[in-house]
Amino acid sequence: MSTLVSTALVDQVRAAVASVDDPEYPDVSIADLGLVESIDVEAGPDGPVAVVGLIPTFSGCPALDMIATDVERAVTALTDVHECDVRWLPGPVWSTDRLTGTARATLADDYTVVLRRKDGGLRCPVCGSDDVDVQSQAGPTRCRAVAWCAACRNPVEVMR
Ligand SMILES: [Zn+2]
User: Fold this and answer.
1) Tens-binned pLDDT, residue by residue, of the chain (160 aa)
2) What range defines the domain where residue 38 resides?
3) Same structural domain for residues 13 and 53?
4) CATH number at residue 37
């Protein structure tokens, strides 16, 4: 396998991985969510093996298995990839800093997900108020908590 082919193949794998949406936010790519840490293509005995390194948003999140399956399916659909190996990396630790602008906008507009600022504060994605209180730690999944905006009285979700 020449270096040229391998570079093109890495780009194909990258595009395939980026086409996978998060199961919880079906309009948001896992690439935009900042889950994709590394993409390599190695020469395997039977053909190229794509190695995709992902970092979990939250270690107990049940969506992780679905994400790994979706990535494998998307990458092995490429004709030049023989096998796809998805690895959950122990680090770096995911934070909302890894979200792209696209992901931030979609999460706020379509899902009313509020992102914790660096100082720990919350801002309502609906009205922009800082008067958001996390009501309960029990959200729809362990990745999210439910909060309430005191200004516009909308329920919002907090991504941990
Ligand atoms: Zn509000």
Assistant:
1) 444 557 899 999 999 999 999 988 888 999 999 999 999 999 989 999 999 999 987 655 678 889 999 999 999 999 999 999 999 998 898 888 899 999 999 988 888 888 777 787 888 888 889 888 876 656 556 667 788 899 998 888 887 6
2) 3-88
3) yes
4) 3.30.300.130
CA of 156 to the centre of ligand 1 (A): 8
Distance between CA atoms of 77 and 79, rounded to whole angstroms? 6
CA 102 to centroid of ligand 1, rounded, Å: 21
Residue 93 counted as domain residue: no
Global pTM reads 0.81
Give the DSSP letter string of 24-57: TEEEEETTTTT-EEEEEEEEETTEEEEEEEE--S
Same domain flag for 47 and 83: yes
Number of domains within the chain: 2
> Could you tell me if 20 and 72 lie in one domain?
yes
Place of tokens 């992102």: 115
Q: How far is the CA of 78 from the centre of ligand 1 (A)?
A: 44
Nearest to 72 by CA among 56, 83, 80: 83
Cα of 98 vs centre of ligand 1, distance in Å, is 24
